[in-house]
Amino acid sequence: MNEIKIFSPATVANVSCGFDVLGFCLDSIGDEMLVRKVDKKGVYITKIEGYKLPFEADKNVAGVSALALIEEAKPDCGFEIEIYKHIKPGSGIGSSSASASGSVFAINELLGKPFNKTQLTYFAMQGEKLASKSEHADNVAPGIFGGFTLVKSIKPLEVLEIPTPKELYATIIHPQIEIKTAESRAILPKEIPLKDAIKQWANVGSLIHALHTSNYELISRSLQDVIVEPHRSKLIPLYNEIKLASINAGALGCGISGSGPSIFTLSKGIEIAKKVESAMKNIYSETNIVFETYVSKINTEGIRII
Ligand code: HSE
Question: What is the domain extent for residue 200?
């Protein structure tokens, strides 16, 4: 095999209570990438469609993660990468991580799969670091593993796969404003009160238990973020209104997707997920905010060959 085309899905990081550790994989939106082997060693980004991004491999997240992989694999060939971006950079649904993980997934396939998913997550993290100026794997891990993931540790990297309840659907609304991850990290407090930490880790534990037992009611009561949301929600127009409307429409919970501005909800069943989409749309339709919405099943496969 000399050439491969893949779909690299969008992802939702944090999942309310799990800042920097929890994430899940979407299905209805993602980038496409074409990667081919070439004789000349190195990584060459030859095409980018959709959004303006750097072509230099060491300045592009897909290039940086690919370079990290080939430094370890030392293959006898190089790679050309074509990126067809559908996920807007700065959207909060893992745009940079889809590029970073897509290139390493594809190169690994072309090399006969020398690396496992944890190693691919590590390489992808190197690209993600370029975009967000910090090391976290809560977007790249669900893209590579599929479903829900918990990043137990980044040094050494340890990713746990969490089961996905069958009837769980996500609804996303993406106001078309850009929030840079580095900036929305900078506004967070460096220290937090112990009482907030206690609430947050109780919610993480109960969310993991609820996902394991398909307990939708407990999922609902666990999707709470007392640490990050109060700060970041101020950056997102009509965040509280969207949240209230989603919950009233039947969503199990609503939170900021990654570092925003996208907002995610989880619902039991596609019918409720669609009702939530209408409720969210109604809020922004009364403003001049340009937005996109997506309803998606949870993608338990992750990146796939197309
Ligand atoms: N956990 C990260 C954050 C995800 O919220 O800053 C965004 O890349």
Answer: 168-297
